[in-house]
Task: structure prediction
Amino acid sequence: MSVTKTFLGLLEHGASYGYDLKREYDAYFGTEKPVAYGQVYATLARLLKSGLVEIDSVEPGAGPERKRYAITDAGVADVEQWLAEPEAPEPYLQSTLYAKVVLALLTGRPAAALLDTQRTAHMRVMRELTRRKQTGDLADQLICDHALFHLEADLRWLELTTSRLAQLAALIKDQGTAPGDDEQR
Amino acid sequence: MSMLTCLELEKRFGRTPALAGASLEIAPGEIIAVTGPSGSGKSTLLYCAAGILTPDAGKVVFDGQSLDRLSDSRRGALRREQFGFIFQFGRLVPELSCAENVALPLRLAGARRQDAKRRALEWLDYLEVGELADSTPGEISGGEGQRVAVARALVGDPRVVFADEPTGALDSINGEHVMRLLSEASRNTGAAVVLVTHEARVAAYADREVVLRDGHTREL
Result:
């Protein structure tokens, strides 16, 4: 997720000090991975330089001065454009799992066991997310559901591949080459 | 310690093998998901475990008692008194109100009408469908009907609830709602749940998963 764009969006919601911005970001989006202070100030410095935010006011603090940041018109336009653009759907065509299955078959290792081990790992995470969802608020539920639907999609693929393993093994054995190589030659 | 054990069950329908050495153990209060592709034998395993079907080989032991040694009437009594059932499409009796549907297992076990109704209403309330007590199944939605079916399965304080694709006919939101209420009720009452499902998100409500493939079980 783009920290820069989310900072801009939060600043459009209201001008903020770096410390408060970090707290707001972490509360909404950083439950799993809070943003580091160093990244907060580096990001704000970049946004200042590009004219997307400005210093709204400066207050003397116990240590260094406290700067309050506000979004500029150019920053608002940037947020507007980012929200309007759909995210590129992830094509998932370079799957590590698929590579592992093919390599297991090529090297004579138990591919079915590999798929089962992966299923167990996925299900463990899904159980944790389901427990968290049951005790969490609406934000927690939506975040967990997003992860659960993706994990479920992986599991469907694991199931399908398990049922086609013999077919894939036969293809690899017969061809002695990668599937699809014929067309490239 | 296991309360219900299925050991090396085999079952054929004609020439088609449904179970070919399926095993399962469930402890009190545990929720176990039985998953697997269509036709892998999930429902057959559930019906054998619940004493509805008799396996061709292997045995089912509940509380130290082998089900195949019980007479039909004792097996029927065991199902009524110790087990609860939830099916994919609710299978509520269309002529009865929701409260009467939920009270039915208690009435069949000999409870007085007023006692059965009171407990039925308590369970309907718990499952957040108390206001539907006087409605008939034809007047309520699929999600509501399934919550009534969960109430009917739990009203007799069963030791084991057998749920066969309980969310299979529901959309995501209603399915989640039914699973949240069923798993909460199981934790609160100590009833074990054997949950047959092909949906991973539903299986994630269970404590563990047993996968059936071609009639064989495998614990993952």
User: Anything to note?
Assistant: The longest helix of chain B spans residues 172-189. Strands of chain B lie at 4-13, 16-26, 31-35, 57-62, 65-66, 83-86, 160-164, 192-196, 208-213, 216-219. Chain B touches chain A through 17 residues (CB under 8 Å).
